[in-house]
Amino acid sequence: MRIYFAKKLSILLLLPIMFLYSSCEKDQHEDTADFLTVNIDGTRQKFINVLGKWNGNSLEIRANKTINNENKEILISLISDAQKATAGNYSLNNNSPFVLFSNFTGGKIAYSLSPSTQDQFDLIITTLNSEKISGTFSGVLVASDSTATDKMILTEGVFNMPMKP
After folding, report:
1. Tens digits of per-residue pLDDT, 49-108?
2. What is the 3-state secondary structure of the chain?
């Protein structure tokens, strides 16, 4: 009877601890509503200085941060003269009326999309309205320096940010 009671008591004591632990777990983006996170060559990077904005019919998704006095910026643009972008899927070389552009600056080399390569870049906009833009992205950027052959691999990109009027 004592063993049975001791087991019940230990289970009852563990339940609040387990509940407390599980309720303290946060979603990786819960600490800030506005963010852009992405794996850059396998290293997770988080940007919290983020903004989406219209420039005519072109849409810009912009994120930057400063590390060790060095500014790092990611820019993803959907460029069109004819119409504004809507929520949906966009890819490099997909024959749409939109031109997809992206670049990364920070450090000694700038990286950008290169339609002349076979590298892919995908952008999925899940929410786009006057107040907010969110979605995912992944792809390959190529060093802009003509002497460099470096590529930057972007994977598991996720963003949620305000839209500037």
Report:
1. 999 999 888 899 999 998 778 888 999 998 887 788 899 998 876 666 667 777 787 767
2. CHHHHHHHHHHHHHHHHHHHHHHHCCCCCCCCCCEEEEEECCEEEEECEEEEEEECCEEEEEEEEEECCEEEEEEEEEECCCCCCCCEEEECCCCCCCEEEEEEECCCCCEECCCCCCCCEEEEEEEECCCEEEEEEEEEEEECCCCCCCEEEEEEEEEEEEEEC
